[in-house]
Amino acid sequence: MPPSSEVLVHARGLTKRFGSFTAVNAVDFDVHVGEAFGFLGPNGAGKTSTMRMIACSSPMSDGELSVIGMDPRTQAAQIKARLGVVPQTDNLDAELTVLENLLMYARYFDLPMSVARPRAADLLEFMQLSERAGDQVEPLSGGMKRRLTIARALINEPELLILDEPTTGLDPQARHLLWERLYRLKQRGATLVITTHYMDEAEQLCDRLVVMDKALIVAEGTPRDLIERYATREVLELRVPEAARAGLDGRLDGLAERIEELPDRYLLYAADGEQALEGVHAREIPIESALVRRATLEDVFLRLTGRSLVE
Amino acid sequence: MAVIVGGRTTPSRRVTGALAGAARVLQRNLLVYRRTWRGSLFGSFLTPLLYLTAMGIGLGSLVARGGTTVLGGVDYLSFLGPGILASTCMQTASFESTYPIMGKISWRRNYEAILATPIQVHHLVIGELSWIAFRLTTMSAVFMVVLTGFGIPRSPLALLAIPAAVLTGLAFSAPIIAFAATRTNDSGFAALFRFVVNPLFLFSGTFFPVSQLPDAVEWVAAATPLYHGVALVRGAVLDAMPSTWPLHLGYLVVFLGVTSVIAYRLLRRRLVK
Question: Residues A261-273: what's their mean pLDDT?
C-alpha cells in the first residue's frame, strides 16, 4: 500500500521538558497513513522522548499533538488501544511463556481469548517463534526476544506501530530477519514510526525521516532527498602519509564541493569521485590509499549532528 | 494466514473499565501463580502448624502456670493462634508489596509494558491489591483449618477472622507499595522488615497483650494497623469481639483507603514521566 496523504500523527511545536531540561524543543512533523517514518539522531537527541509522547506514555509539556485523530491528553487509553509499541529494551513478562506473553497482552487490550488464540498463533508463525511457544522467555536469544516483543505489539492489530531502536544489540542475521519482517508489515499497510541511530536501518526501512539533534529537528525528507541536499552523490576517502599531511595545506582545494579533514583521512564530497581522484593524481599529491563510494545517510547524519561523541 | 496489521476499518474497541482493567492485572498474577500454588499453600499450612506447636503448646505450657486472666481468660494456644494469623498476613502482604512490585517497576519493567496498553496506573494499584487479597484469603482459609485442628475457634463467627486478617494485610500492602514506588533499589526493604514489620510482629499483641507494655509503647503499638487487626481477628476466632470493634475496623478501612491513594499517586509519579 503506498503512503497516503492522510495524517496519522500530527505534531506542531511539540515540546517535552523535564524540570529545566528541554528534551524535545517545539518540533513539527506529520506521519502519513501507510508510511514508515524515521527519527534519526545521536543519543540524547530527543527521539525516545518524542516517541513516548506519541505512544501516550509521557505527557507532553507544550504544543499540539494528535494521534489517530485523537488528543493524547484526554484520550490516551483510546489511542493506546490502537497502537503497538516496541520499546528500546525488551520488557517481556519473564514469568510467563512465549505464548502466554501474547495471550496476556491481548487481555490487557480486552480481546477475548477466542480472538487472541488464533491471532497469537499467526503472530508466532509470522515471527518464526511457533516452536518456542511453550518455552520461558529468558533463554531466548536477543533476536527472538525482539521478534516476540514485536509480535506482542501486533496482538491488537494496531493502526500505528512504534519501534524504538528495533535492532540495537542484534547480530547481523537477526537484524536482517527483523528488517524483512518489518518490510512485510509495511507492505500490508502498516504505518511504522521508527527511531534508530543506524543509518543502514533508516535507508532500508524509512520512506521519510527527520534528523534530530539537541532536541530539535534539523532536517526532514526521504533518504535520497537528504543525501542530495546535505551530501554529494559520491565521496572520495583519501589516506595521506602522516609526513605529507603538513604540506598539504590548500592543495586539495577545488577538487570537490566540500572537503572534510579527519584525524586519519580526508573526505572529498563530489558528484564524481573518480574524477576527483584523477585530480588528486594530477596534482601529484602523495596518498596511501583512496576509496570512492556512494554517499550515504551516515554522511548526512555526521554533517548535521557533528562528529563529537555523545555519551 | 490472517491479516496481522489492522486496516483503518477496524471497529473501535471497548475501552477497558476500571474493574476490568484491574481484573487483567490480577489475572496475570494468577497465571503465574498456577505454577507455584502448591508450594505456596503448603507453606500456608506449615507456618501455623510450626508456630502453634512450638510456641502455643511448648511455650504455652509454661505460660499457663502463671494464670490466664491477663490473656482474657483463655489458654495461651488460643491467645496465640489468631495473633499469628493476623501477623502472618502482615508479613506475606508486606513481602508481596516489596520485591515483586519493585521488580515490576524497574527490574523487569512489567508495568512499562502494561501501561503501553489501555491499562492505567489505578488499574495496577487495584489489581495488585486484589491479587494480594486473594493470596491472603487462601492463606487465611488454610490457617483456619489448622486452627480448627487445634480446637481453637469457639464458634462459626470465627470465619469473620478471614476477612479481618485480609484487611489487616492490605493495610500493610498499600503503604508499602507506595514506599516501593519511591525506591530505586531494594536496600530499603531489608530496613523495612527489620525496623517496622518484625518489631510490629513482636509488639502488637501477637504474643502477649499490649497492656503488658509501658504506656508509651502501648500507644505506639495502638497506632499501627497490626494492633487493630489482631484485636478483630482474635475477637472473631475466640467469639469475644471487643466492644471497640467498630473503631478497629474503621481504622483499618480508612488507613487502607488513604494509603491506597498515596500508592496510586507515587506509582503514577514514578511510571508516567
Answer: 89
**CB-CB contact of A86 with A148 (8 Å):** no
Contact between A73 and A60 under an 8 Å Cβ cutoff? The reply is: yes
Return d(Cα A124, Cα A32) in angstroms, integer: 28
| Mean pLDDT, range A274-289, rounded to an integer | 90
pLDDT at B43 (0 to 100): 85
Q: What is the C-alpha separation between A242 and A235, in angstroms, rounded?
A: 21
Are the Cβ atoms of A188 and B119 closer than 8 angstroms? no
Return d(Cα B6, Cα A190) in angstroms, integer: 8
Laid out side by side, the sheet with A258-261 consists of A258-261, A266-270, A234-239, A289-294
Q: Which residues contact B184 (CB under 8 A, 6 or more apart)?
A: B106
Check pLDDT > 70 for residue B5.
no
pTM for this predicted structure:
0.89
B5 touches A157 (CB < 8 A): yes
Residues A164 and A260 in one domain: no
pLDDT at residue B211, rounded to an integer: 85
Grid coordinates 492485572 are at which residue?
Answer: B25
The answer on A163 and A35 residing in a single domain is: yes
What ipTM score was computed for the predicted complex, to two decimals? Answer: 0.87
CATH code for the domain in which residue A65 is found: 3.40.50.300
Indicate whether A168 belongs to any domain.
Answer: yes
Q: Which of A95, A99, A126, A147 best tests the B interface by mutation, with the highest count of B CBs <10 A?
A: A95
- CB contacts of B2 in chain A (<8 Å) are 118-119, 122
Which domain range does residue A241 map to? Answer: 232-295
Tell me the C-alpha distance between B141 and A185, whole Å.
51
Q: How far is CA A160 from CA A79, A85, B228, in A?
A: 10, 9, 52
* Domain-embedded: residue A304: no
Torsion sign, CA atoms B23, B26, B32, B35:
negative
Residue B10's CB: how many other CB atoms inside 10 A?
Answer: 14
Residue A302 falls inside a structural domain: no
- The CA dihedral of B228, B232, B237, B239, to the nearest 10 degrees, is 130
Q: With beta carbons less than 8 A apart as the criterion, state whether B136 and B93 touch.
A: yes
pLDDT at A134 > cutoff 90: yes
Query: Which residues of B touch chain A, with CB atoms under 8 Å apart?
Result: 1-8, 10, 12-16, 20, 24, 27-28, 31-32, 108-110, 112-120, 272-273
Q: Are residues A53 and A77 in the same domain?
A: yes
* Closest among A57, A83, A53 to A158, alpha carbons compared: A83
For B205, other C-beta atoms within 10 Å of its C-beta total 26
Chain B positions in Cβ-Cβ contact with residue A78 (cut-off 8 Å): 12, 15, 118
Other beta carbons within 10 angstroms of residue A250's beta carbon come to 6
Number of domains, chain A:
2
Of the candidates A296, A76, A104, the residue with the CA atom closest to the CA atom of residue B113: A104
Judging by DSSP bridges, how do beta strands A208-213 and A36-40 pair with one another? parallel
